[in-house]
Design brief:
InterPro entries: Rcf3. By secondary structure, this protein is mainly alpha-helical. Helix content is 87%, strand content 0%. It contains three helices and no strands.
Amino acid sequence: MVRTHGSLMHDEELNSAAWVAARGAAVGAAKWGLFSAVAAGVGLLYSPMYRGLTIQFKVFLQMSGMTLGSMIEADHRLRAHELIIRNHKKLARDLEVWKRYEAEIERSAEEAASTKTRDAEK
């Protein structure tokens, strides 16, 4: 749903999604950063080509891995969060429909009972 007005600072749904994405980005950067560091260590030990790279390029490779990991993990967690929120909203809608249905059935039963008592009194 596109929001055209109002403050987004007080929207609980958006704030929770932002926090889920931020935590996912931090975890993804840490995981993939560790993997990139291990790969860099292996490259330093076994690859003369990697040892010949400048420190700036090595840092760029490390940061690229961390950036990719943070994007992948944030997207994954945000999609999972979206699915959970959709399921909660669907359950709430279904519950509301069920409550209206129950109220309608009770009203019909009360009307039938009142009609039956009126017919019995006549």
